[in-house]
Amino acid sequence: MLWKESSPTDRLLVYDNKIIVEFPLLGESVQIDIDGDVRDACMTPNYLAIASDRRLYLVRKDALDSPLCCDYGNDGLRKLEFKSPDLPLTITRSTIPEEQPTSDFGWADLKEPRSDVILTSTLTTIYLVTTENGVSRVTRLFNEDDYARKRVISCSVVQIPHDVRIVAATSGYDHSLFLTEKGAVYALGTGSRGELGIGLAPRVTELTELEALEGVRVRRIVAAGWHSGALTAEGDVYLWGWNHRGQLGQEKEAIELYPSPLDTDLMIKRIQMRAHQTALWTAEDEVHPSIIFGTNDIGMPPVTLRYFDVPEKEPKLISTSKEIIPDDPTAHLSTNRNVKMVFVKDGQRC
After folding, report:
1. Which of 209, 218, 235, 306 could pair covalently with 230 via S-S, beta carbons 3.0-4.6 A apart?
2. Which long-range contacts (C-beta less than 8 Å, at least 24 apart) are formed by 100-104?
């Protein structure tokens, strides 16, 4: 498997030449065999987009056997005109144990772009990034609301102020981030909660560089819900957006309009986000996060820091401002930007 991702109602598993969509609530799994190698895939709540080395596919999740497709040309992506494929995709359906709705599919493997074709999606919009001769183009490929009204797929090119090569893209509810090969970060979409990192911007329709990160070499970008993050080549973390459930590591509800550095001495190797959480790893090959900010519970909780194995550091308690409950497997601490930590080793606080 190349990577996986999940939502509260379904799961996407991506392989070299097939896609598997699982619907736990329905107890059903659908395998889609792809003509060619899978380059990228993404999904909105209702639609799935797949890019192979030959075609682009768009398909409703409740009609996976009726996709629309667009062919590639030898000279790259030609004019995007979607139609029903000449040959139907091979669809295999099977049953899986029915489960309660959950988005907890483990912390999914991060996608590593395998080609010059990248897909990313918000709740309603799918963006396509293609690169030719070292210069990338971003296309607004599909919007659910527009398609529901017009029943026509209207693609449009997004303006980029400079010629850049984009190597990664990620999205939250209604905003997207793009990372260039030189480590610059660009944003697009809604910014009413600071999620774009460029100040209070109700809506941005062209790629806009995050000036607050100018001169910082970013190697990983993440976004989910209404917050965003960046991991630098030096292991530093920047977070911004809406801290309404502690996902930015702050004690009080707040909005960070610009990227704010996380004050910690730890070198972070990996970062991921969910709608209301931020997870950090201090070792690249670890399965479980070393640190988790935020919660799925309603309301603003004390920030939860969960530590597992931290390399080259002896487990110890570092300046807590709240009493630790002995029977609590994790410590719930009130923190601020000077992050106060609890280390846990072998399931026990130290």
Report:
1. 218
2. 100/24, 100/25, 101/8, 101/9, 101/24, 101/25, 102/8, 102/24, 103/6, 103/7, 103/8, 103/274, 103/275, 103/296, 104/6
Handedness of CA 118, 135, 235, 278 (dihedral sign): negative
Task: Report the half-sphere exposure of 342 (CA within 13 A, side-chain side).
Answer: 25
Six-digit token string for 348: 């026990």
Question: 346: how many CB neighbours lie within 10 A of its CB?
Answer: 8
- In this structure, what token pair is assigned to residue 104? 């907890």
Element spanning 150, H or E: helix 144-150
pLDDT digits (tens, 9 = 90+) for 159-196: 988 899 999 999 999 999 999 999 999 999 999 999 99
Which contacts qualify for 317-323: CB closer than 8 Å, 24 or more apart?
A: 317/342, 317/343, 317/349, 317/350, 318/342, 318/343
Q: Which domains does the chain have, with CATH numbers?
A: 159-311 (2.130.10.30)
